[in-house]
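Operator note (shift B, R.M.): manual run for Dynamin-related protein 1C requested after the automated queue skipped it. Running by hand, logging everything below so the morning shift can see what happened. Input copied straight from the record, untouched. If output looks odd, do not overwrite the archive copy; leave it for review.
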Amino acid sequence: MATMESLIGLVNKIQRACTVLGDHGGQGMSLWEALPSVAVVGGQSSGKSSVLESIVGRDFLPRGSGIVTRRPLVLQLHKTASGAEYAEFLHAPKRRFTDFAAVRKEISDETDRITGKTKQISNIPIHLSIYSPNVVNLTLIDLPGLTKVAVEGQSDSIVEDIENMVRSYVEKPNCIILAITPANQDIATSDAIKLAREVDPSGERTFGVLTKLDLMDKGTNATEVLEGRAYRLQHPWVGIVNRSQADINKNVDMIVARRKEREYFETSPDYGHLASRMGSEYLAKLLSQHLELVIRQRIPSIIAMINKTIDELNAELDRIGRPIAADGGAQLYMILELCRAFDRVFKEHLDGGRPGEQGYRRLIDGSITYFKGPAEASVDAVHFVLKELVRKSIAETEELKRFPTLQTDIATAANEALERFREEGRKTVIRLVEMESSYLTVDFFRKLHAEPERKPERKPEKNANPPGPNDDLYHDHSLRRIGSNVSAYIAMVSDTLKNTIPKAVVYCQVREAKRSLLTNFYAQIGRREKERLSAMLDEDPQLMERRTQIAKRLELYKSARDEIDAVAWK
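Run finished. Output pasted below as returned.
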């Protein structure tokens, strides 16, 4: 199995690539959102910034009174094997920060760039990556502190605006909530716990963190909370002792602060028995371990979402046209295909378009359409089995072990062939479903004509009145009869497809994989370069740019799928 660092590190890498490509929002769930991350939630002055700095081991966040965090900060920690620590911002990709005081200033400047030098907030995130041998792989999102009242210079809606922003992150099912509460505050009034309880009532996504334990009144302690007796969560509470203001003013090193924190818990008469699971270092490891577990649990759904997006991107590429091949033969083929496409449209106009559908056909067509999903799922299931067999066969072929490049080439060609077979299988099973829709069995119509409709009897009335309740009864009877006939026909179609779809899948995928898995690969080896026909295939530059962007996203998703698959089962 993959190590925790490699799996979480891969997620960080994919999230960063998504951000660079702008693939982190919009309609539906993006790949960025599908990957788990940790949102840091707490009231103003709850110690959020100090907790983050303790986890990172660096003093790098802006400080001050009131709302200091005015934009979400997406903080990605990348554990390195060795070397100097440094930071990079997404908005300044060519600049590497080794001075973390400069990182603090850059966060402030970048915040002001969007919000101005005001106390307003913005939901546009700042993306910061820190590379260090002293961190664990994590993605943390620092959010503005929850507040109860607006202060001078803030809009009246600031309280609601902040809560809505925080809620937009923590309500996502893949978000782990780090709820920060000061120990010298009643847990029942904690803004972070209140919000976490609303979006995660079971508590399975929430980690409670108690700060400022050293600032509690003498004679009091927080053992009831830390031991889970005052407010129980599914995960253990973690106590944190941050640097004091005096330590901050003296620029006490974070490593020294961590040592002092350990000593505090180890020597505390109240918390000594909990020392092994207290402190910022333990918190970082706990979050990293849980994040790794969540990622593993989410791998099937992440892969499914990636495959769905790959299909959507491929469909969009098909719609706008695939890149023009460089060799003359392929270009000639493309030109012929474009001519055939024109010819099809032209013939449709000559034929007068598709005839309208009526009655039973419209009802049956709508019902049969629902068979397409399970049919395609059967094709995908066989495809994944064949793909795994390719991987195993390459690994077990002794003669290939000397030639890693050839292994890669064969694997690529085989998988490309399987994709073609899958597409052919998909077209075939969909064609089977559509055939059932396009032609209704003759016996079905004969049965309808053989059973004349019986209109419910009604008593004669003296005066001719408008249609009454008996007409409604007749109408209901007719509808029930139609529904019964449609259901019977659909059941017959279902029985037919249960037999024909497996045959089609085996024929199109398994049989072809056995007969011609590497046929194209053999042809490519001996292919010669031919004359180009690019002059006939000139394109709109905007269309080419759009295709390039889609191709980059497609490559990202394919790479993410392959890397997640490789790392998860290594």
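Quick read of the result: The longest helix spans residues 469-516. Confidence is low (pLDDT under 50) at residues 349-356, 358-364, 526-532.
Leaving this for review. - R.M.
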